[in-house]
Structure formats: C-alpha cells, structure tokens
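Memo to structure team: turn this sequence into structure tokens by end of day. - J.P.
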Amino acid sequence: MTTSHVDQNNDPELILARMLNEFVYCPRLFHLEWVQKEWAASADTLAGSREHHRVDKETGDLPKPGELAGQRAEARSITLSAPEAGVIAKLDVAELADGAVVPVDYKHGTAPEGADGIWDADRIQLGAQALTLIENGYRCEEAIIYYVSSRRRVPMVIDETLLNEVRQIAQQARVVANDPQMPPPLRDSPKCPGCSLVGICLPDESNRLTEPEEKTKVRRLYASRDDALPLYIQAYGARIGKKGEQLEIVERDGAKHRVRLLDTSQVALFGSVQITSAAIGALLRQEIPLCHFSYGGWFQGITHTVGPANCRARLHQYHAAADEDHRLDLASGFVERKIMNCRTLLRRNGANVDSTVLKSLKRFATSACKAANPETLLGIEGAGARTYFGAFPSMLKGDSIDPFEFECRNRRPPRDPVNALLSLAYSVLSRDWTVALLSVGLDPFLGFYHQPRHGRAALALDLMEEFRPLIADSVVLQLVNNGEVRKRDFIRRGSAVSLTDRGRKSFFLAYERRMAHEVRHPIFGYKVSYRRLLEVQARLLARHLAGELPSYDGFRTR
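Reply from structure team:
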C-alpha cells in the first residue's frame, strides 16, 4: 500500500511533473496535452506504456520521513505533491536507503551521448519529483533515470540550483497554461517527426499558412492511411456484444461475426440493431463513435465520449459566429469552393458539357466571394446547385440497357435511384464531418452558413459543402458508371425510392474506397486520404477561429 502525506485533490494549479517534461521539450506540446487535453498514441507511447506496466502497479510502502532510518526497500507508483512549487508527481519507483529517498524514473527512449547522459526535459521531470519529496519532509540528494532502450541507469545529483530551476519552469508553464493562445509551433524542428501529436499540432502546416510568402516545405509528418475503418451494421434484428477486445455481431439466423476494436474507427447502426451496454462502454473507452441511422439512411445521432476537455475551441467558435462579417466571410468561402469543385467534377466527367454551364458556375463562384449578405449568398448557392444538377446527367454513363435517369435533385423522400444514392451519400458524409468536429472540440451544431436548427449539425453541413462533389457525388458516379448498383438494388414504395441491403452494402464499399483514396493537398503538397483530410481541415478551422491562422483555407481541387 502506498502512502501520501499531502492532500491529493484535483487542484488545477498543480502541474504534473511529466507535463514539465513536455514543456521543456516543446511549450506547444505542453499546451496541447495539459490545457487542451489532446492525446494521440504512437508506437513509442504504446511501447512506453508496456514497459511501465510493472512499475505502475502500486507495491511497497513509503514510511513517514521520521521512520526511514535503517530501512532499505522500495515502493512503486507513489503520488506526492509540492503545493508551494505548484507541482504534483507520480514516482515510478522510490528507493529507500540510509534515511533518504531516491526517485527512479523509467523512460522508453535512449540516453543521449555526453557526460551527463540525460536529456534536459527528463532532468527537469526528475527534479520535480525530488522537489515533491523534499516538500513532504524527505531527504533527497540523488535521482536516477533508467533508459530502457539503452539499458542504462543514469544517476543525477539533486541540488538547490536544480530545484530553483524546476520552480522557475513550473511558473513559466503556469503562465503558458493560462494563456488562451497556444505557443507558436516549432519551425523545421527535428523533434516534430517523432512527436505523437504531430497530426494534431500540424506545425509545418500552421507555419505555411501563417507565413505563406516563405514557402516553407511541409513535411509529411503523419500517416496518410488509417488502418482502422468504420463498421456498418444493417442486418435487421442484429445484436452487438463484447467478447474480450472484440465486438461480436450476432444476426437473427445465428450467424456470428467478430471485429477487433483496434481495427474499428466508428460503428454505424442502421434501423433495428441492438447493442449491449458492455459494447457501448468499450466503444466509449476506446473513443470510438457510435452513429445511429434510420433504416433508410437518415443520420439520427451519435454516442460518443465527452470529447476534448478544453472548452476554448467552442468559445472561439461562438465568438466568431456572433460576428456577422466573420460569419459571412467563412460562409462565402464554403459556397465558393463548393461551386468550383462542382465545376471541376463536371469538367472532368461530363460528356459534351455546354461551355456556358462551366462559365456560369465560375461566375457564381466569383459572385459568392462578393456576396453582401447571407440572403444573397443563399441565392447564389441555389442558382449554382440548379446549374450543376441540370448538367449532372452528362456524368452518368450507366448501362444503356438499364439506364439510370436523373431529371433534378429531389429528397425527403428521394424519388429515383440516383437521388436515393445522393441522399445516403450526403447523410454519411455529414456523419463523418460531425465525428471530425467533435474530435477537435468544435460544436458541430453551430455553423456559419447553415442556420442553427434543432437537431441539425450546421457546422458539419458547412464544411461538407466543398466535399459534396469530391466525395459524395463521386461515389454515386462510381456506383452507377461502374455498374456496382443496378435497378434491382432499389425499392420503390409509393413515390419514395430507397436501397436494398445489397445496394447499401455496395454503397458502403464504394464510399470507404473513396475515403481511403489519396489526393495531393493543393497547399501542403503531400498526399493524404480523404478520411484524414477531414480531420486536418477541422483542426485548421479550429486554429483559425482561435486566432492562430489569419484565414481558413478550405479544400479546392484543381
């Protein structure tokens, strides 16, 4: 049983010693982890967690300071705080010898070359651990760090110079933590490629957008493909449970399927599908969203964790939404890029598209940038949509024996197979944008172009505008033009048309192929999958709303 002789409350003034390590390494990383509560696992962090498993188990006892004489033992996983310095620390191991306590910290990495053999950030973390011991009355004159990869045990002297440095750094970290603006990203730093939060921090991307005239090279710092994929369950009466670290799907006929949680990015339920509380709990712990759709594909809601603990992103969003000029500027950009991406899709895939259609779309896009008010912008967007969908049939190249007809865009309910596919594609894309926005701490229900309405994810609809032609419409064209869906894959009930189970399965296969498709980012130059691109754009919007980036640069294909 471990013992702590201080009040271990959740006082926000107490900074974790581990966070001082991050602060010394990179102040921006400290702000992301400590203030915004962002986290992303990597191979190194997972390896470190495995190596810490033994020392994380609470064993042994740490006697009171006056009871150490003559004792030689060790205690593991000890938590102590130093209120005067504003620091709290968890000691991996506390070795007791000759009336003193020696903190021992385990690190996954390798020891640096040089006389000291210890990284500066690790030195400060160990110094903070020693400070908590000293404030609690223990004698601490030495600390040890063990670098697992080097298999090297490095001793370190604890003196007043080090302790004063720890106090100063803790004070500096507190100032940064209280600043609503994140520290600027490191520039061309070798630290960035190995950082697990590089895909959240986006250092090169932020530097490029902040100072575009420098044309700084943007390194491809994160994987463009994500091995975890969405799981779609549409079998009527299916039941989802949890077996170990897997989800078990049992269909009405008794057929069973298992999917590892590790391989799952989100779960989508269609219609009458049951899921156990144990499975829901596992999804929440793994931060895997659970999305609910009607049997016909209407996105109804989402079950997810509380999301990022930092509320500042939403405060910035609410402030921007209250600014009419800022709101109109963002909305104009959404519409302009949507129209131009529609024009590009027509130009690439349309057969004998009238040049006046392309000219009209370009004119509408230009007008969107100059719209004086939301009402005018709405009219421009409507005119652009009518022009685009008027030429949409030119991109359909289905089987001439069993052709798909399309006269105009209709919905609620869709009255032909093509519109049924479009509606489902827009619904699923809206879900993906809702998930992306929640993951970065933004409110998906407060938009800048779409007006707030009960139950409508307005910001998700805003951001998906420019991606409608690139993802949703492209999926529909692939399904029809490649013969992946046929007329037999649709059901007509009165004037409404919907997909059969087989048709939806074909749709989801095509949709996920599109989301995994890599495109070259027009600003950053590297290739990225559409699925990862949504997260990148959501984070860039959050950075713009926070004042870090001068504008929100959306995605417009060439």
